[in-house]
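tmp note - Calponin-homology (CH) domain-containing protein
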Amino acid sequence: DERESVQKKTFQKWVNSHLVRVSSRIGDLYVDLRDGKMLLKLLEVLSGERLPRPTKGKMRIHCLENVDKALQFLREQRVHLENMGSHDIVDGNPRLSLGLIWTIILRFQVTTLTI
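out:
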């Protein structure tokens, strides 16, 4: 649907505006978040903290581990991740991938603006 397409494009631009600091970018929000590596990189850039190194490898289990590391970091930041598991992101679930990025925007963008 059109709204989802606009959100995807907008969130992708937002992610890339931060990843540019570490000379990285994503081409497709749903595809490029799946292995968890860009997600970990994005959270490092936004938080200024060192996150666990991503697990090397392209197998599903490696992707799940990496996304899980990112979600665990968000939980430690007291970010509420209701009904979202690493498998949702690895499977490229559009609604939950958009929801995750929106949650990250709220936590790291909006919080900094209101403080």
